[in-house]
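Each record in this resource describes a single protein on a pair of labelled lines. The shape at a given residue is found from the number at the same position. The record below illustrates this layout:

***
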Amino acid sequence: MFKLPTLDHFPLDNKTVLLRADLNVPMRDGAVSDTERLTRLVPTLKELARRQAKIVILSHLGRPKNMHEEKFSLRPVAAELGKIWGHPIAFAEDCVGPIAAAAVAALPSGHILVLENTRFHAGEEENDPAFAAQMAALGDVYVNDAFSAAHRAHASTEGLARLLPHAAGRLMQAELAALKKVLSHPERPVMAVVGGSKISTKLDLLENLIAYVDVLALGGGMANTFLAARGMDVGRSLCESNMLEEARTIMAHASEQSCRILLPVDAVVATALQAHMATQTVAVRAVPADSMILDLGPQSAAAIVEALHSCKTVVWNGPLGAFEFPPFDRSTVAVTQTVAHLTRQGKILSVAGGGDTTAALAHAGVAHDFSYVSTAGGAFLEWMEGKILPGVAALEN
């Protein structure tokens, strides 16, 4: 399907595999609060263990200042991964040097070792060849299963691939296969649903999407900027007044590309962003001066649902309203449940990812009903923007 070397291409028996995983998981009070990324790693771990490889996991966690900071230690993450794996997982207090080397040497074949946070060393984010060489000395083969970190050219995501025989893990392989299905040769019509707060963070995404999708539905705070660009008063709503010209340019380019943009025609408004606020539903041309648009109105959600029924491929990024504060979750829930229903019926291929997307899908109870939900944030967006991801490019070379 693509030029990526995979686990099928390597004899791994009794080899020491340096597995770049994404253990950068949410933490609360020193414990893992969301295990989705850990669970997604299991298929690769199972295959490597079955083939009697020594599995040495490399990852970062958070943004430490190039030094050991206990709150960013991977020790509790390794313990949580052990619970999911069903067996104890070894942990080393460094990712290079004598401590790491001794832990790797003591690791039996078919077992797992997690090395300490790679970002405790400045060489990681600098993609320092000497630091990459120190890590490479610990293993025989490099496997990257961290698509969600592939947009960063760091030592453990890009540098190692230059030094060792390398392959993509099963999660990386699945992510790329799903994304290439919707970008390279999608079954048409193709629809993109894009929400979130700002267009300034998604300009490249929007410009790339209108070049190949047939319908682009906009929601969230970014839709307010497009409404304002059309001359509408959006009251106290979140709006990037400095981005109006960019919004007009995107709409003009969409027209040139025969991409239909669906903007809200009605909205749910309130005077404050709080759960269970008193609300009213108004036309987008009649937003009260003291109110904020906090969700799509029922007519707008219905228009997206209607368009979905005529599409074959759907890409989703971002919530349509302030879903964390009911009742401003109604449009996100209604539309994502429609996508899930059509996916279960086999009528559409649906791929979602980036930012708050996974949280919004989980809130709607459909996190496992899309064809594929990416674990990546920034990497998903950059791929959808058409950018080259260093971690992927390094594997392909």
Remarks:
- The first strand starts at residue 16 and ends at 20.
- The mean pLDDT is 94.
- The first helix runs from residue 36 to 50.
- The chain is about 35% helix and 15% strand.
